[in-house]
Amino acid sequence: MSTPTIYIDGEHGTTGLEIRQRLATRSDLQLLSLPRERAKDEAAKREIVNAADLVILCLPDDAARATVALIDNLATRVIDASTAHRTAPGWVYGLPELTKGQRATVASGKRVSNPGCYPTGFLALVRPLRDAGLLAADAALSVHAVSGYSGGGKKLIESYEQPQPGARPAVFGEYGLTLAHKHVPEMREHAQLTQAPIFSPAVGYYLRGMLVNVPLRLDGFTGAELHAIYSAHFAGEPFVAVRALNDTSALRDGFLEPEALNGSNRMEVFVFANEASGQALLVARLDNLGKGASGAAVQNMNLMLGLPETAGLA
């Protein structure tokens, strides 16, 4: 069997660079590339995307759609890391841990949309409860999350790491205050909700790492029952760990820190429950550039090419 060829369209961006670094030392793949000055040459791009076995798109939404339109080789498979196709008909949602059958669907997919970083955490917390019948489709949910500034791409990274004279980057800042963040449609659709969750994202003054929080009322169930659902749903998963119920061993000086899984493709799920108040806080911790972006793309690529799922991600 010949060595699969991979082309990363947008390899000089934040996610593209990380994917390329993860693949560069692998002998089971061959990376294709265009000189930077030809990256926007439509004829050159058409040729290379149709020559590749698999194309990974790390582009703005419109540019991702434009590249997909250039592909007429039926054998070329695509992973899109943009928002463009996350709810599009005919595209597979690339979160293998979403359901017990999703891994096989990703593996056989021709067009796979990489999940957003925030939705990855949100869906890990919500979809298992929906599938278990614990949450109704019309559940009124809110999700609060904080990410490192790398989640905003090159421009935001530069504003933090190379600020203008006299400028002071925000130590913490909320955004998405129009309540119309681009991640909300995929959260709603893939959690199988009939109403959108209230999503409140924020950026912290650190490079990478993410906490995604979903508060929940203990309405007819206990924290232990919540924890058991997650333990069953993620049993045997190579990249998702369910921490012990009310796991204070994960805290440092009383804080749950967002950076603990940086550089990995791992995600941790926490259940903090207070039976007396009837409240629970569900938390997912991940690297927004790992399981939230480049690591997830490599995981999906491995599945689609029939390679070991953990290859290049240990």
Descriptive notes:
With 314 residues, this protein is α/β, with parallel strands linked by helices. It is built from nine helices and 13 strands. The strands form two sheets. It has a seven-stranded mixed sheet. The protein has a six-stranded parallel sheet with strand order 2-1-3-4-6-5, with helices on both faces. Helix 1 links the parallel strand 1 and strand 2. Helix 1 packs across helix 9, helix 4 crosses helix 9 and helix 5 runs parallel beside helix 7. It is globular, with a radius of gyration of 20 Å.
Based on the model shown, name its key terms:
single chain, 314 residues, alpha/beta, six-stranded parallel sheet, 9 helices, 30% helix, globular
Following the backbone from N to C, one meets helices and strands in this order, namely: EHEHEHEEHEHEHEHEEHEEEH
Number of helices: 9
Strand content: 15-25%
Helix content: 25-40%
Q: Kindly report how far apart the N and C termini lie.
A: 25 Å
Task: Characterize the largest beta sheet: strand count, sense, and whether it forms a barrel.
Answer: 7 strands, mixed
- Count the strands? 13
Largest beta sheet: strand ordering: 8-9-7-10-13-12-11
